[in-house]
Design goal:
single chain; 17 strands; alpha/beta; elongated; five-stranded mixed β-sheet
């Protein structure tokens, strides 16, 4: 009847329910009733369900006890954690706060608020957060809080806080929204850190930085001014000693003068090194980019030092890789400066053997090339532990080097900076007793077609015959109103073996022809009193053609039709300023009947009348009255753009040719030019302010001539514009005055550039000759 076992505790429970206890002996009736009850329970009920209910009842009771135990433990831990975080907030050095979302009022603050502002915490609860901010910062505070309320993330921001003492303190705020489980922003939490001291330190640091920069600029300006002030008399000093060496001196006098010149050149080299170093240090050294002949750059640098090498019986050699480009675009002056410095060092520290220059290039793209030049010598070498020092400022490999070989220790430092400015680097490989090899690289590019043409024209020079005066004797008159132009023409003619007379204007030319007969007159086209064209017409009208001189026009213009105008006035030939020795020689030969010398249109040097921006737009108004008739104008497609007609700022080829004729005279010419250019520029500015068109035209014309003669092409262009402004009456118009002032400012800037270029080039030549 009973098919399933009954556990002991169930049996005991059922006995108790029937009123039986463990100590009462059951009667047969009771057992029967008990068993029937059990059987009925099994038959009517579900044992598994019953057992499950019993188990759940027991488990529920146990879980309740466990929950109560855990609850008591959790509440204790939460209380401890809450107390710990409250202590951290209370002790935090930064202000911690919360804001209500509804109105941005302050709902809680920690004690750091009182330390920061001086206000009691209780006094600011429920007050608007913006009340803490400086009035000027309120809009920013409102905007930032509004963004946070919208649930946006914002970066840290700064606000000025008003303190109880009235002081404004700066604080950096970090605010973030606090969201509930539905991602709704319930309140805003924030931290504010006092950064007043840091801001003051930053301001002090910025003030110190600005003071240091001002001091550095003042130092650089002082060095530049002092260097210029020293170099100006030094250039004159060296020029005069050069002239003195060309006079009749006995051996002792010559030795004295050569010692004076050598000492002066050494001093000038030192001055220029310091100036270059100062410019590099202050970041004011500017690079130029013009096409240059690579081989001419290297061989020209060697030529400058060949005499020095010859004195020590050293051999100078070059090694060009076969595929090196003929022409590159870069700052040839700075490349030559580095190369001359390295060559000078190698020659200085080499007593026997020789110096070899190796030239390599590597294409870095279809347009750009890395130029690498190495200078190898067989000199004393550099110890390995001192190699790194040689590129440091005012440093040499050995302290005794200065006493034995001389030098400032700046040359290699300047070379290193120059190479890096041109996108390259410099380094050395050396072994004591076997010599050193210095390498440097610079970034260059291949020239464009118009740049190739420009380079080709500038390099097209004929050899000057220094004995032409003996082979073709001529009496020559130079007519020019500019003293510098007169001296340059005289110098170029003297280099060909001629002596020339001088005239300042057309009237003096006519008077000179009345006194004696001349074979050739070099006639400046623009002169006061009587210009070159009218003077030529009078000569042709009033004099016997058999006795009249040949007339060669010398003009600052190089535009189409200028030559034809000169020939129509009766002139025999034409050369343009700046006058090149080979062109002048060719013109002399042509007018005297040498048919083998063809005329070439002077091109590539630019027209002085074409002005580049920012004053190019005024050119049309200024030159309106100068336009030729329609039939004389070139076709529109043939007229190059203004920027294409422009030439480099300074044509160093002009003064290079003069330096080769007589260095001392060139130094004197440049010194006179820079002095007079400053005076002429001042006169131009005064003429503009006084609306004196005549004086403006006169001063600009004078400066234009001397600028072009010495290769200062950009200055000559600007002066041409100013001259036309004075001549055409546009100085009375507002646009004319504005344009003239802009041009004058540009002229002053250009004069400083020309001054630096001339002085640097002279210093380079003189350093190479030391």
């Amino acid at each position: 009847m009973l098919e399933r076992p009954v556990t002991h505790h169930l049996l005991e429970r059922q006995l108790r329910r029937l009123g039986l206890s463990g100590g009462t002996p059951p009667s047969p009736e009771l057992w029967r009733r008990f068993l029937e009850h059990i059987d009925r329970s099994y038959a009517e009920g579900d044992q598994d369900r019953y057992l499950l209910e019993c188990s759940l009842s027991t488990s529920s009771h146990e879980m309740k006890e466990l929950y109560e135990t855990f609850k008591r433990s959790s509440e204790s831990q939460i209380t401890a954690e809450r107390d710990r975080y409250r202590s951290l907030v209370q002790a935090a050095p930064d202000m911690i706060f919360s804001l209500a979302v509804e109105d941005g009022s302050i709902t809680s603050l920690n004690p750091a608020f009182e330390r920061l502002t001086g206000w009691a915490v209780e006094a600011w609860i429920n007050k608007p957060f913006t009340s803490l901010s400086h009035p000027d910062d309120v809009p920013r505070a409102i905007a930032n809080i509004h963004q946070v309320i919208l649930g946006e993330s914002i970066p840290p921001f700064e606000l000025r806080i008003l303190t109880k003492s009235g002081e404004n303190r700066s604080a950096e705020f970090i605010v973030t929204p606090h969201r509930d489980e539905k991602r709704v922003v319930r309140f805003i939490l924030g931290i504010a850190r006092d950064i007043t001291d840091r801001k003051r330190a930053e301001q002090d640091m910025q003030a110190a930085k600005e003071a240091a920069e001002t001091a550095s600029e003042a130092k650089s300006e002082f060095l530049a001014n002092m260097s210029h002030e020293i170099r100006t008399p030094m250039n004159g000093f060296l020029g005069m000693t050069g002239l003195l060496l060309e006079t009749q001196l006995d051996s002792k006098q010559r030795d004295f003068v050569e010692t004076i010149r050598s000492s002066g050149e050494t001093l000038l080299t030192l001055i220029n090194d310091i100036l270059d170093f100062s410019k590099i240090e202050s970041g004011k050294l500017e690079l130029e980019n013009h096409p240059f002949d690579l081989k001419a750059c290297v061989t020209g640098s060697l030529d400058l030092l060949r005499a020095k090498a010859r004195e020590k019986s050293l051999e100078l050699a070059t090694d060009f890789l076969a595929d090196c480009p003929h022409a590159l675009v870069g700052d040839v002056t700075r490349v030559r400066q580095i190369l001359v410095n390295l060559l000078g060092n190698s020659i200085k520290f080499t007593s026997e053997g020789g110096v070899t220059v190796r030239v390599r290039t590597r294409a870095t793209s279809s347009t750009f090339h890395e130029l690498r030049i190495s200078v190898q010598d067989t000199g004393v070498g550099i110890p390995a532990d001192r190699v790194d020092r040689i590129f440091e400022s005012f440093s040499q490999a050995d302290a005794s080097t200065t006493r034995k070989f001389g030098g400032t220790g700046l040359g290699l430092t300047i070379s290193k900076h120059l190479a890096e400015l041109m996108g390259g680097k410099i380094w050395v490989e050396s072994e004591v007793g076997k010599g050193s090899t210095f390498h440097f690289t610079v970034q260059t590019r291949l020239p464009l077609e118009d740049e190739k043409l420009q380079l080709e024209r500038s390099g097209r020079q004929r050899l000057v015959d220094h004995d032409l005066g003996r082979r073709l004797p001529l009496r020559i008159l130079v007519a020019d109103d500019n003293v510098i132009n007169q001296k340059v023409a005289h110098l170029l003619l003297e280099n060909m073996g001629y002596r020339a007379d001088l005239a300042a204007d057309g009237l003096e030319v006519l008077a000179a022809l009345d006194r004696q007969r001349y074979d050739v007159v070099l006639m400046d086209v623009q002169m006061p009193e009587l210009d070159g064209l009218e003077t030529t017409r009078r000569i042709r009208e009033e004099r016997d053609p058999e006795e009249a001189p040949k007339i060669i026009a010398v003009t600052a213009g190089a535009m189409r039709g200028d030559r034809e105008k000169c020939l129509a006035a009766g002139m025999n030939d034409y050369v343009s300023k700046p006058v090149q020795a080979d062109e002048l020689q060719a013109a002399l030969l042509r007018v005297m009947g040498d048919e083998s010398v063809d005329y070439e249109e002077p091109a590539g040097r630019g027209d002085f009348g074409v002005i580049a921006p920012p004053i190019a737009e005024l050119e049309g108004a200024v030159r309106a009255e100068e336009k030729p008739a329609a039939e004389e104008q070139p076709a529109a497609e043939e007229k190059p753009a203004a920027e294409e007609q422009q030439s480099p700022s300074v044509n160093l080829g002009v003064i290079t040719s003069l330096y080769q004729v007589r260095p001392g005279v060139l130094t004197e010419l440049i010194d006179n030019f820079l002095s007079s250019a400053g005076e002429r520029t001042t006169a131009i500015r005064e003429a503009i302010e006084q609306a004196d068109a005549s004086e403006l035209q006169k001063a600009a014309h004078s400066l234009k001539g001397s600028s072009g003669t010495l290769g200062a092409m950009r200055m000559a262009q600007i002066c041409s514009y100013l001259e036309a402004t004075g001549r055409n009456g546009t100085l009375t118009e507002p646009t004319g005055v504005s344009g003239a002032r802009d041009a004058t400012q540009e002229l002053e800037n250009e004069l400083e550039l020309v001054r630096e270029t001339f002085e640097r080039q002279l210093a380079e030549w003189q350093a190479a000759a030391v």
